[in-house]
Amino acid sequence: MKPIYAKTQTELSYADLELVLALVRGRSLGGAAERLKVDTSTVFRSIKRLEKDLGELLFDRSRNGYLPTELGRELAAHAERIESQLHEARDAAFKSGGAPSGVLRITTTDTILNGLLMPLLPRFTAAYPGIDLELIATNALANLSQRDADVAIRATRKPPEHLVGSRLGTMQSAIYASESYLRRFDEVPPLERMDWIALDESLAEHPSVKWRRQRLPKVVPRYRCNSVLSITGCVVWGMGAGVAPLFLLKDNPAVRMLEGPVPELETDLWMLAHPDVRHLQRVKLLFDFMKDNLALS
To answer: Transmembrane segments in this chain: where (predicted)?
Structure first.
């Protein structure tokens, strides 16, 4: 049974709204505490105090974490608007004479991070030493509306409509195997007879999975991985054949392209942001830098 609070006279502060927003985004006491840089007991006491002052529940507690009520979502929306206005004010202050600064959170896959971004980011941070980067490697698209990240760099043919962004180019892929693996055979066998390295069910909709099931329906992969980067590593170390992006293996003398580039495996690379943060100076600088320096077709 939900507790009933007696409503008392209170004035909401920005700290209160910031607390609600942190718990909405963090989805747990620990997640909110990490965002606010306090301990979990402080978050627990603060949200209980705020609910008591308001006389309303702001969150439903469940096994899935803290789920905002209708009022909780409304207060979080107000907090996001204030946060956005603060960003705009700070951005205006920086433009008036200060150097670009602040934290820029970038989310992408480990494949794109290691194969495309890592070679470029040292030049970006050298050009803008006041900007600190937080790099989040995950296959899941972060919720940019809840500020899980500022910028997402993703391989997709259809970016979400509620985000704004720039197409950075086309990513091509091919079928590879290492020279050490191929030396096990007197002659290169057909693809169907090779040991296959493929993505697991967590990425069942990936273009490489769909292509393999259509082109090689009888193949049962010997190895399964949860990232394209892991597949590439398995290929390089001679475990079998697999699909890998050209940007990772095209200049690697230890591997051989068996087929490709495969048109069905082509996808676009997008840099995406929420409309509320696209105007921020550090976000715009990254957009411009990536468009000028990332070499894709």
So the answer is: 228-249
